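FAQ: What does a ligand-bound record look like?

Like this one, built around S-adenosylmethionine:
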Amino acid sequence: MTPQAEAEAEIQLNAASARYSYNPILRWNPQVEDYFIKAYGSLHFAQISKALTRPSCYSCIRVNTLKSTSDAVIEKLQEIMRKSGPQNDVVGINWKENKASNDIDLDMVEKQSSLQNESITKCQIPGLEYVVFVKGSGPHEIDYGYSPDKPPKEVLVSRKCAEAVLRGAQVYVPGIMACSSHVEEGDLVAVSVAVEQPFPDGGWGLGITRGTVLQGLPTDPYHFERNGLYIGQGTTMLSRAGIFRASQGIAVDMNNRVFKLPSFYDVLEGEIFLQNLPSIIAAHALDPQKGERILDMCAAPGGKTTAIAILMKDEGEVIAADRSHNKVIDIQKLAAELGLTCITTYKLDALKAVRKRNGSSDTTTLCCNKDNNDVVNQRSDSGPLGNGVSSTTIVGSNADTTFKENVSNEKANERTYTSKADIRKNTRRMRNGPGRNQSLGGRVENSKGFLPNSFDRVLLDAPCSALGLRPRLFAGEETIESLRNHGKYQRRMFDQAVQLVRPGGVLVYSTCTINPGENEALVRYALDTYKFLSLAPQHPRIGGAGLVGRCEFPDGYVEEWLKPGEEELVQRFDPSSQLDTIGFFIAKFAVGPKDNI
Ligand SMILES: C[S@@+](CC[C@H](N)C(=O)[O-])C[C@H]1O[C@@H](n2cnc3c(N)ncnc32)[C@H](O)[C@@H]1O
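The answer part, i.e. the structure of the complex:
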């Protein structure tokens, strides 16, 4: 080869190694990006953006202490690992490769570990000994077998599919968007992802038809955009024709991944639950006690509900509500799997969580299928309220919205009135089983809300923009307006939550977003609106400080965050910090006497 040919070959190889790599750049709406840069500074925000494109490099397992211990779980997982061998995917990890030189630094977690240098370690944070970490690794460099005259066979997957694959999933048929021609079952393919691109009209889009043939040439759709967006290599389980004919099933068995993370599918069911560390800490911060009455307002799928119930040793009452029927069923399944009996589930809109005081009982309706209107029973949950708080206690609140909320509750209650004939008909259905048009789903009770001051503690793990979840390959869908709308929705939910906690009780608010407008700004609203609330210290506190100050937007809107002295009372989990968690926020409020407001 001539020196010139050699130089050209080297250039090609360098270009190929940049192309066949994992080095994504997270795209944001420009105004949102400006806002976050104001909040964090450009360097810190760049670090956060980078961290969001990667999964956490360890899995966090919460042990069901009612059934097992951390030591027993560690022993069992190590046994599974020994039996499965280094290449086996029983817990979805190539264990021997954990010590790859480019492992993400887990110093913080490692230092707190009693089993230094092991893949499976017990958390040593006081009070969190029931948490076990399992280490993963990445990003790994993968040789996709590129040669200048023969590019590798390829599969292009959707962003959602790629994000799941980065968390340890396989590539399923519906996730595939395009594929090389002549792909046969058993072929080795390079897997890359199609991420939304800016459209000329200012929006974002994909503009690719499912089934497109990839040639491995610059003329392919998204050829250049996919530089640095290769997530691993796998073996096809179907031919190209099969992939686009089938409607379900695994299409590519991912056997060489950029991130190797353990998956615990079907492993130690009922004994363990895979949960992000900040979520475990949110349940812990609530500090639930045996025998208490606790409300989890937005509970599905039940991760924090079950953590709370276990901390209460399954003694007391945990009410888990969610507005989605099917998600309530998920909570029921999880509670049953973990063997928890103190959890009662309801379908309830958190915006209507406070029941108007027109009686001494919480009225609920029992519902048997997905359709909210299919009420089959109605019952009254009478009985004492937690801590002897009378149902006639006057609610003190200075928020206008509270009054409006109660009025709209009344209307909602009228709308859900069920006639005796309906009840008789539905009771018959219950006895005789579902008719042809009814699904065989679990039973979900509709709640019309709860009486003011009727809970010792309330968790509001609010629906949010989820901009802390990882891995994330695109963030352009959120605009300043949509972020503000999340904030408004959360404040309305908070207005309900605050009424339900008894004086002397506790209210924990959490989100999985990095957006200060849904975090610090909510705390500011809460403290300024409800003078009987104060920020309470949290245990354990391993997250960072909250943001102090304010943000002035170009449209004149001013968002107020924390005041000096408040920042150390909240926990802000930064995805770019050494803890390597999702982005998360926790504020804990002590509820003082409400009557002098
Ligand atoms: C962040 S997730 C909760 C996660 C849950 N706490 C856990 O740890 O498993 C937010 C939940 O709020 C629910 N949700 C959204 N709007 C709601 C509303 N108006 N009322 C009740 N639940 C709502 C969603 O269905 C979703 O399940």
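Follow-up question: can I read anything off the structure? Yes, for example: The two ends are 86 Å apart (CA to CA).
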